[in-house]
Specification:
Number of strands: 14
Shape: globular
CATH class of the largest domain: Alpha Beta
Structural class: alpha+beta
CATH topology of the largest domain: Alpha-Beta Plaits
Distance between the termini: 25 Å
Strand order of the largest sheet: 1-6-5-2
Oligomer: single chain
Largest sheet: 4 strands, antiparallel
Helix content: 10-25%
């Protein structure tokens, strides 16, 4: 965890052009904090171009990786963490932070969230050696060094080392590699509940849900379809009565 502290007085000096008193600005600052934030970060140097994050993203918020460019997070990301779960080489991080005021100090904390990873396992591997030009690009991106290529001469793969990520298939310029893999289910790390006594039936949450996982029930309240929900929390951000509660569960840590 990274922790940064700064005196509140020093922090508020940045707003002196507003001509507000220190007491007034301090009062506002206390009301606005704590502030929590979350970002999804791809370590470009670790990305192997397997595109499992791209194929797993439920809202098309990832730019597909190519040989020269790693995968990238788009602006429409809702931070559901599915991409981080799906990355077989731990190249995607979930970064959480908080800003708060404590004892007249502004305190920022930044930490990497622990995210469980889905199982990725090789089922079948096929390469058309007659069409393979032995360029060696697949060897360059193989995360387990399972592939050995003597340029223009030979191709060899140790299937005992192969994890089935499919990076070789994605970067092959001739598309002569086919990888059949098993990709485990998304691991549930959160749950969501609706307090229908607080729900006023405004249905703003339905409008912002990126996967249409919220419906109107017979009582003109909301119903969350958990088989479709990606637990991104967009609904909780807009609910005017705090009727929706998204919370972490620790079950996955015991598995």
């Amino acid at each position: 965890m990274i922790r940064i502290e700064k005196s509140l007085k020093e922090f508020l000096e940045n707003f002196e052009d507003f001509n507000y008193s220190y007491e007034y600005l301090s009062q506002i600052a206390h009301k606005l904090t704590p502030i929590k934030y979350k970002e999804i970060y791809i370590n470009e140097s670790k990305c192997v171009r397997c595109n499992l994050c791209y194929y797993s993203c439920p809202i098309n918020a990832i730019e597909k990786a190519k040989i020269k460019n790693p995968a990238k997070i788009k602006e429409n990301c809702v931070k559901c963490e599915i991409c981080a779960q799906s990355c077989p080489v731990n190249a995607i991080y979930v970064i959480e932070g908080e800003g708060k005021i404590e004892n007249d100090k502004v305190i920022y904390t930044i930490d990497e969230k622990k995210v469980p990873h889905r199982v990725v396992r090789l089922k079948n591997y096929y390469i058309d050696l007659d069409k393979c030009v032995k360029c060696g690009i697949c060897e360059r991106f193989c995360p387990t060094k399972a592939i050995k290529v003597e340029r223009r001469k030979s191709f060899n793969i140790n299937l005992d080392l192969c994890i089935g990520c499919g990076a070789c298939q994605e970067v092959c310029p001739r598309k002569v590699i086919k990888v059949e893999r098993y990709l485990g289910e998304i691991i549930k790390t959160k749950d969501i509940e609706v307090d229908k006594s607080l729900c006023v039936g405004c249905f703003v949450c339905m409008e912002v849900c990126p996967v249409n996982a919220i419906e109107q029930d017979l009582d003109n309240k909301i119903k969350i379809l958990k088989d479709k929900c990606i637990y991104c929390g967009k609904c909780t951000e807009v609910c005017p009565t705090s009727a929706i509660n998204l919370f972490e569960i620790s079950k996955f840590e015991k598995e």
